[in-house]
Amino acid sequence: MRKIGKIFYFIFVSLLVISCNQNKTISLIEIKKLDYPSASAVEYYNGKLYIIGDDAANLLILDINLNIVDSIPLDFKIGDSIPIISYQGKRIPKSIKPDLEASALNGDDLFLFGSGSLSPYRNSGLQYNLKEKKYTVINLEPLYSKAKDSGIEQINIEGACFISDKLILVNRGNKSYPNNHLIITSENSLLNDSYQQLSIIPFESQKDTASFKGISGLCYSKENDQLIMTVSTEDTRSVHEDGTIGKSFLWIIDHISGKLGLKTIKPDKIIDLEEIDPRFKGQKIESATIIEETKDLMRLVLVADNDDGSSTVFKMSTERK
Predict the structure, then answer these.
(1) Residue 1 falls within a domain, yes or no?
(2) Is residue 206 part of a domain?
C-alpha cells in the first residue's frame, strides 16, 4: 500500500439549508485530504469505505473515521491483451487509464465501471466480491453500444447504483452535449452481455446551458426510496478533458422506484453545497454513499477529485424536519 499523506482537518458546524420545499439541517462533520489520485466513486460496506480513483492503480479502503486501513491493487486486462491496472506509478496516464468513474454495491459484490468515453481502454469494468476478495473482468462494450443505439450520442458513465433488481447508470453530459441520462438495465444483463431490457430516461433540459450541471455520481436511499446524485459544473466541452471546476450540488429524486418508467425526469430537491460551507468551493464532488439512515437522518460520505493528484473526503449528515 502506498504511503498516504496525513494532511487533514476537522470541521464542526451546523447550518440550516432550505432546499425546494423541504427544510434540512446539514452538519458538516469532517473533511480529510488524501494523497490518493482522482477519487471518482465511493461505497460503504461492513463499516468500511471503498474508494476508487479514475486513474488510480488501487482501490483504497478507509474506516468510518476516514483512516486508511488497506489498499487493493487492481490487475486486469482491457480488451484482448492490454494490461492497464498493473501500472506502477501513482497515476495511470490519461491515454490508457481505465477511467473507473462509477461504482455500485449489490450484496457482497462491488461493481466498478469504466466511463466508456475512450475505446477500448474505458470499456471494461470489474465485479469484485468483497467477502471472497476475488474479481471478474466485465466487458462493457455491448452495454455502451446499446446505449448509443438507444440515443445517447456521447458515452460518459459517471455514476451507478442498484434499485431492487435494476442497475441504474448515469451518463454525464458537457457543454457541447448538455444532456444527462439515466440508463436502466439489470445485473443479469450486465454479466451476460444481454441488454434487451435496457431503457433510457433523459433529464429535463437545463435552461442555463452556459453553466451546465453534469451528474457525477449516484447512490440509493432504500429507507426513503430516494435517488441521491452528486452534480457539478465544469468548463469542458468534451468527455475526455477536464475543465475549470465550478460548483457542486446534491440533487435528490423522491419516490424513485415509481419513476423509472417516466419519459423524462428531474430532481425534486437541489442542495448547493457551497452555500452549506464555503470550503466546498473549488471541490469537484464526484460521488456519495450513505453510511447511516433512518426516516429522520441520513449520514453521507462524499469524495472530490480536484484534478491535482489528490482527493478530498467529506462526512456530513442531513436531518429531515
Answers:
(1) no
(2) yes
